[in-house]
Structures are given as structure tokens and as C-alpha cells.
Amino acid sequence: MLREFTCIMCPQGCEIVVEAEKEEAGTAGTDSVLGKAKNISERNKSHNMQGGYRITGNRCPRGAEYVTQEMENPMRSIASSVLVEGGELPLASVRLTRPIPKGKIFAVMEEIKKVKLSAPVEEGTVVISNVLGLGSDVMVTKAVERQE
Question: If I label 109, which of 83, 131, 136, 145 is the partner at 20 to 30 A Cα–Cα?
Fold first, then answer.
């Protein structure tokens, strides 16, 4: 199975192609990916084997680490907002303190939707500790003062 990624670990934005050892069902479009892999391979002769994957196109080790994680356990961070009662603003921005598994985003968002704060709200306040047991807190990123 071949997959393409654009690396986000640095400003270079490398086009990385990953070849996994085992085939998965539904590998439609493999020919176009193979063509791109050959083009990338021509520009960048380095091939990395990491975690059972053949990785081409990365110009630094961080790219290989990024795509290996994306193949095995993609992680994401969330930025959102929560309701604030009696504040100068109706919402306070929040974000996670650590990335969470991509498959848990909607469950975490459901927990964030349940939060209602009362003004004043200070930046850095943890509104949900260890959300869903994932090791990440939901933290306020913008202070909201009490409405006068």
C-alpha cells in the first residue's frame, strides 16, 4: 500500500511517499501514487526504512517520524471555544495541552461542548483535566473579563 503525505514538521513541506509492507483493500489510485513516488525518488535518492515502512521524499529525519506516526497512530490537537456566562465576550477560546488520537476528536469535542464558565475567566485555567483519560487537559487560551 502506498500513501502520500505533505510533511508539516518544518517549512519545507516535503512530499513524502510511504510504502507499507502489507497491502490493504481498496488501493485504488496506486498507479498515480507510484508515478509520484518515482518522481520524488528521482529528486531525493534517500530511502528510509522505519517501522516496516519504506519512506521517500523526506529531507530530514522529522519527516520520517511524522509519517510513521501518521501511519500507526495519527494524533491531532484541538482548538475550540466554550461558553462564558456574564462575560465581556460570549466565548473563551480553549485548546488541548497535548495531541490526542485522531479517532477521539469527536468524543473530546462533545466533552468541550458541555463546558459553561462564569466570568471572569483567566488564561491558563484548566477547564477539563485529563479529558476522557487521554492525558491531555482542555485549557483556556484567552481571558474573558466580567461584563460591567
Answer: 145
| Closest among 53, 74, 24, 102 to 16, alpha carbons compared | 53
Residues 90 and 135 in one domain: yes
Domain boundary among 72, 95, 121: 72
According to DSSP, the β-strands at 53-56 and 15-20 are antiparallel
Q: What is the pTM of this model?
A: 0.73
Instruction: Label the pairing between strands 100-101 and 116-118.
Output: unpaired
99 close to 75: Cβ distance less than 8 angstroms? yes
Residue 43 carries which DSSP code? H
pLDDT in tens, 87-112: 999 999 999 999 999 999 999 999 99
Asked if residue 61 and residue 110 are part of one domain, the reply reads no
Question: Are 27 and 2 in contact, with CB atoms under 8 Å apart?
Answer: yes
